[in-house]
Design brief:
- The chain has two domains: about 190 residues, Growth Hormone, Chain: A; about 200 residues, MFS general substrate transporter like domains (Growth Hormone, Chain: A, Up-down Bundle).
- It contains 17 helices and no strands.
Length: about 400
């Protein structure tokens, strides 16, 4: 890669780190927000689900609408809106205003992620697209390991509003870096909104969309309720819970890196078996939870596999769009993060159902079932790819 491509990769990594920190840090501030705004902790928790829903609904719509614009001015404008959203959060004196600011931030975050992936896929050499996209995705993982604890510490020290001033400053740094590194010649795709949305009705895209949703949902069936699992099943003292989450975050970094390696050759073919391994790991947690050592080892393996599909699915969506809807590649770039947010909501809801009606540890079985379904869908996509390839060769 050229020097400019390396600097661009570093900047897009920084961008996703900033976006991830802003998205996830609210989880560590719920108690402070609840007390300060005089609302219940469950009402404060709605800030998390509101962000995810706004992300999932708003991202594809706004991406489709904005895809006709040149990427350089579009990305800079969106980063400015991101900064404004975080400043609005820091100035919010009411819960309603805070909700509005988080909705704005969520939609802008989703489109910026899609554009970052689209820029990387267009600018980088073909053989480097997978590794570069895995590096960009790693920004989110690093955000949960480093950005969120720092943001939470700032919030506990100076108040939760100070945290959003912190993320706004990070946004300003990203704005400056983006103004220097993002290529100015990347034009938009001139296409009607109808053609853009048509991508979402394609059967191949629909099948592919649920692959990352089910895989992430499988993990979040357990991860959402990891704290009570650690306390009540593994019987780990409360003062060590944060260390387990740190372990999870650190190991998940390698998950993204491994994903970058998988995508280089026949990523979809490999994911068929990766998801079966994921199902086995999740199911084994039912048995390993009888031992603290085995249980923690099992949790590490869950983290090691959670993001392996990101890079492959990101490029898979782009390649499918390139074949069937070339003018909708930017929209295709948004589908992996949107699918992941849908999966988080799905896994959390399923985990909640299980923990309410069954034993806490039974969540492991249901997570495993979701991973198996993800594998079946991947087998289907792989089969359709092979069938299309044979038909194409036959015509030639």
């Amino acid at each position: 890669m050229s020097k400019h491509q390396k600097l661009l990769t570093l900047n897009l990594f920084l961008l996703t780190f900033v976006l991830g920190t802003s998205e996830f840090v609210i989880v560590g501030l719920l108690s402070e927000v609840s007390v300060d705004l005089n609302i219940s902790i469950s009402t404060a928790g709605a800030l998390v689900s509101t962000f995810a829903i706004s992300f999932a609904i708003g991202t594809p719509i706004l991406t489709a609408i904005s895809s006709r614009f040149s990427k350089y001015p579009l990305m800079l404008t969106l980063i400015v809106l991101f900064i404004a959203g975080n400043i609005l959060s820091s100035l919010s004196e009411t819960y309603e205003l805070l909700i509005i600011s988080r909705i704005l931030t969520a939609v802008v975050t989703g489109v910026l992620i899609a554009l970052a992936m689209a820029v990387a896929s267009e600018v980088m050499p073909t053989e480097k697209r997978g590794p570069v996209i895995s590096i960009i995705f790693t920004g989110f993982t690093i955000a949960s390991v480093i950005g969120v604890p720092i943001g939470t510490f700032i919030g506990q020290l100076g108040g939760w509003r100070m945290t959003f001033w912190f993320t706004a400053i990070l946004g300003i740094i990203s704005l400056i870096a983006s103004s220097v590194t993002i290529p100015k010649e990347l034009t938009g795709a001139k296409s009607s909104l109808k053609k853009q949305i048509g991508l979402l009705t394609n059967s191949r895209i629909i099948i592919a969309f649920f692959i990352p949703a089910l895989s992430i949902g499988a993990t979040y069936t357990i991860y959402t309720y990891l704290t009570p699992l650690l306390l009540n099943v593994l019987v780990i003292p409360e003062q060590y819970i944060s260390l387990v989450f740190l372990l999870y975050g650190l190991v998940s970094i390698f998950s993204t890196i491994i994903g970058g390696k998988l995508v280089i050759r026949n990523g979809i073919g490999k994911l068929r078996y990766i998801f079966l391994i994921q199902a086995m790991i999740l199911g084994l947690f039912y048995f390993s939870s009888n031992s603290i050592v085995l249980g923690l080892l099992n949790i590490s393996f869950i983290a090691l596999i959670v993001y392996t599909m990101n890079s492959t699915m990101q490029l898979y969506f782009i390649d499918l769009a390139d074949k069937h809807y070339p003018s909708a590649k930017d929209l295709a770039s948004s589908l992996t993060p949107v699918s992941v947010n849908v999966g988080i909501a799905l896994g959390s809801a399923l985990g909640g159902f299980v923990t309410t009606n069954m034993k806490l540890i039974d969540a492991s079985w249901f997570g495993g079932i979701l991973a198996i379904v993800a594998s079946l869908l991947t087998f289907t996509s792989y089969y359709l790819d092979q069938k299309t390839s044979i038909q194409t060769k036959g015509k030639v």
